Records
---
Amino acid sequence: MLRHFPDIDVEITHNKRDYLIVSYAFVAVTLCFLIDSVASIGLQYALGVAGWLSLFVMLWGECKYVRAQVIVAVTFATIGENFASIFMAGYTYRLENVPAFVPPGHGIVYLTAVILGRSGFFLKYARKLVVIVVLVGAIWSICALTGLIGRSDEIGTLLFCIYLLYLFKGRSPMVYLGAFFITTWVELIGTSLGTWNWAAIDPASTLTQGNPPSGVAAWYCLVDAVAMVCAAPVLHAVVKIMYLLGFKQQAEVVKHKI
């Protein structure tokens, strides 16, 4: 079940940049939601600008493949936001829109999950972190499903089961492991401050759902799966466009790094 996890005796390298970015992401998410709790639409646009600038800086030292994954993740997640929130009303933002900071926010959250998964700390304690995530997630799901905490959360239990499938059968378990921590933080802070609220009944399945659902990290596993599949085609498309525009030397550089 742990065949895609790092070996127990894997050599660990601690990268200070990784820890700095992760720390910044957790703090930035909190500050953004605190500001948004009283923000006008104009201030939301300002938060959006700050979000894009933060994402660009965070991507500065990343390879082209990770950048392509983030682009795909942002695109897919933004489309999903408009469908799930605006069209389906599965959850609703405070001003009943998709705030300007949400698209870059998805990029920051996804990149944070990737960085957490490759960090020295996660690589060293991967199996212990798996135990913690499974226990915490299971307890949360059971308590939410039975109504011991908050409202009934049937969809959360289903999502947590899907998350476990990704975690133990997926090819990016370390990213999924990281996703549990950052998405749980995002959801707990965001819903507690009223940045968004989940509908009591999921409109697609008619199952009850918590605020937030307990297995919400499963959605980012889907985002990662799409990002992994589409990243290489995106890079190949970029190479072709560069050739067409006459940037042959730059295209060759990108091509050899795919």
---
Amino acid sequence: MTTNLKYWYLKEHQLFKNLSLSEIDALCILKKFKRSTKNEIIELPSDDKERLYFLKFGVIKLFRINKDGEEILLEILQKGDIFGEVGFTKNTHDSDFIKVISSEAILCTFFREKLEEVMLKKPDFAINYIKFMGFNFKKIQNSYKNILFKDAKTRLLLLLQTILEKEGIAENNKALPNYLTQKDIAQLICITRQSVISLLKELEKDGILNYSQKEIFIVDYKKINEMIENVK
């Protein structure tokens, strides 16, 4: 992948759009692009230098292995998401892993210290970064609130709504590639797998969607939003 093409990829993102080629190069992002294929597993390095990761293309699963060797799903990340040492305190967790769940993913990484250097030289970029991370932090807060205060069906609908927004789907009769197993969904919204199965069958019966291993076919997009609004 050429430097110009990598630069174009980053310029599409709202966080990097006002940076020049030399400023982006100072982050050392252009040297650390990685293209991965479906089911490839990548261990995030746990070294002394804190890193950030930017998902330019594709869908990945961020997970951790517990002491029993079980896979604990942390988050599903889509194109444009930034993760890793996004704040200003060091992460003390054990190593996390990435699994590519789309046909392909393009991931780039850079050290946080490089980010801080660019922020010192370019205050407007620092402000954009703070706003961007503040928005993402708010989304995380809302996710926790939903788990605490929303019923299981609403949590499932909110998860679907988030994925649809990310994929740019806002109409009926659209197929959404299904990257989530029933176990993934259960972990993301903190319910049992059996409850997920029951809720999906209920939504199918109500004519809202059709769920299969390959895709989630959205029959009534408007109804999803209406049902969420009715419980607020």
